[in-house]
Structure formats: structure tokens, C-alpha cells
């Protein structure tokens, strides 16, 4: 059988041409489609997935705050121009940090300065007004704080942080029922980001009304939202002590030390607690650590001197209490804010030791302070002076 090759060629070649033509058309369509898609993406300002937009400082600070990293949140926010939202977050972080350690009271002043400036530049910003109110109540200006918080609430009754600031202002001024009413109302509309502040305000309101167990329950709830806020542990310990729950207070202070091993304030509170429980060696150890870690803090020397006095070591008591008194004078602590026990107990220790020179010097310092400012404490001897010592 012979194969007709010409017929065979005619039967195959057209098929090859049709296949090649279709492939070319498909490829051309793909190229045109990809080009059109690329053009549309360029017009929309598309960025490839690898070039992700960086996180904003405020968002990064919020994330740090939520993790309990107050130092990180403050550092991020201090380097950015302050506006309402960031100012509110910065104010909250500064206030919480101010209660976490013995030497952070300056943070409350910084918070007020920042919040006041943002309010001046953005007087209609509700977050700025809430920040200002929070900062004012933190420094004890409760009336001003309430006024500014109410200004914000007049425009937005559901502003959670403004109402929380109002509750804290009422509580600071002694209007505890009003504080409870405002904090309960704030809790009804609070979100997860506001939970710590609202629960703390509610706990303080309950605690001020003597409901210490409920205050502890609310603080425990707040700590579940943010276990890194050290101020909450100190407040929980305070309410535990009010209930006589020494173990609960001790655990709270150890929680602070577990998160911040160098915390001095927790050590001082453990010194107080140990002294109250007559655990003398522990009290001396904790107070000794306070004076070593914070030698310029007069309060540490007071508690150390007081503990020596209670243990009958009057020479050590006199010397440590003298350090407490001298630091307050050198640091220009206002007379009305000085701890006068540093002078009185020092004088008692000197009298017991028969140290007339120290006793008379200490007594004369006290008289000079009492003559220049109104003080609540009294300390007086007969005109001839302390028994056995001639007054000069």
C-alpha cells in the first residue's frame, strides 16, 4: 500500500498552524492583561507586600502600654508631636509610672505640663481634655480636674476616659458616692483599651467606701487586662492590709519585685509590713536594702531608724534618724511636708542615751521649724529644758 505523502502533508500542516496561532493569541492576551493590571495598580499607588508600611509611633506605644512596658511607651510618645490621642496615652503611662517607684512623682508634673500644652493647642479635642483632667487629679487639683472633665462630657457623655477622670477627681475630693456613680457609668461603656483605668477608678471608689474585698476583686480583674502596671499591685496590697491579709499584701509586693527586682518602693513596704508583724530581722534587712539602693530617700532612713528604736538599739536609731532629718533639710522639703518623727524619735533616742548635745540640737531644730510654719506635731519641754540637760 502506498502512502500519498502530499495528501498527508495537507492533512497535518493546517492543524499545526491553527495551534500556533491560538497559542500566540493566548500569550498576547496574557501580556495585555498583566500590563493593564500593573497599570491599574500603579494608578492606585500599590506597594508590593514586601514594602509594608511602618507602624506609627502611637500604635507602637499603645502596643507597649498594653504589654505593661510603660518606659517603652513613654519613650516612643515623647519623640512624636503630641495631639489628643497620643497625649492621652502618654498621660496615662506617666501617671501609672509615677506610682510605681519612690522617685517618680516628677512624672505627674510632666503629665500635667504635656496635657495642658496639648489642650491649649487643641481646646476642642476630647482626648486632650480627658488627658488634662487625668493629669490635674493626679497632682491633687481635683476641682480643676472635675471642671475640665465635665467640659468634655458636655460634648460627649459617652467619653470613657473623661468620665473616669471625673470619678477620680470626685474620689480625691472626698465625694466617694459621686465617684462610685461616675465610675460605674464609665464601666458601662468602656472598651478593652479603657478597662484598666475604669476598673482601677471603680476599685478606688469601692475602697474609699470601705469595701476592700470588692476593691481587691476589681484590681485583680484590671491586672488580668494588664499585669505589667505595678501601681495596681501596690493598691491591691494596701487593701489587703486594710483587711489584715498580710499574706495577700506580701504576695502583691513580691509580684512587683518579680517584675522589677530593683524596685525600692516594694522593699520599703515589705519593711513596714515586717515591722508590723514584729519580724525584726526581716524588717531590718528590707530597710537596710532601701537605704543602700536609695541613700538620698529620707523615708528609708526614717523606717530604718524607727526599727532600731523599736528594737532598743538607740544609738543606731539616733544616727539613722539624724540622716533622715538632715536629708529633708538639704533637699528643701517644705516644713509642712516634713516627717517630724525623724526629729522627735531622734531626740527620744538621744535622751535615753544621755546625749544632751544631740538632744538639745534636735529640739532646737524642731522649735525653729515650728516657729516658722504651722505644724500639727507638738514637742515641748519645761523652760529649763529637757530633764538632765540645760537648754541653750
Low-confidence stretches: 1-22, 25-47
What form results from the Cα inertia axes? elongated
The fold-level CATH name of the domain at 56-190 is: Serine Threonine Protein Phosphatase 5, Tetratricopeptide repeat
Q: How would you name the oligomeric state of the polypeptide chains in this document?
A: single chain
Please work out how many helical segments DSSP would assign. 19
The termini sit apart by 148 Å
Structural class: mainly alpha
Mean pLDDT: 88
SSE succession: HHHHHHHHHHHHHHHHHHH
**Rounded Rg:** 34 Å
CATH class of the domain at 56-190: Mainly Alpha
Q: Could you say what the CATH architecture of the domain at 56-190 is?
A: Alpha Horseshoe
Task: Determine the CATH superfamily of the domain at 56-190.
Answer: Tetratricopeptide repeat domain
Share of β-strand residues: under 5%
Counting DSSP E segments of at least 2 residues, the number of strands comes to 0
Largest sheet: none
Q: Percent helix among the residues?
A: over 70%
How would you describe the overall organization of this protein?
The chain has 392 residues and is mainly alpha-helical. Among the domains are: 56-190, Serine Threonine Protein Phosphatase 5, Tetratricopeptide repeat, CATH 1.25.40.10; 296-392, Serine Threonine Protein Phosphatase 5, Tetratricopeptide repeat (Alpha Horseshoe). The protein contains 19 helices and no strands. It has helices spanning 5-43, 57-66, 70-78, 84-98, 106-121, 126-138, 142-155, 160-172, 176-189, 195-208, 212-225, 230-242, 246-259, 264-276, 280-293, 298-311, 314-330, 341-353, 356-372. Helix 15 packs antiparallel against helix 16. It is elongated. 40% of the residues are buried. Mean pLDDT is 88; it is low at 1-22 and 25-47.
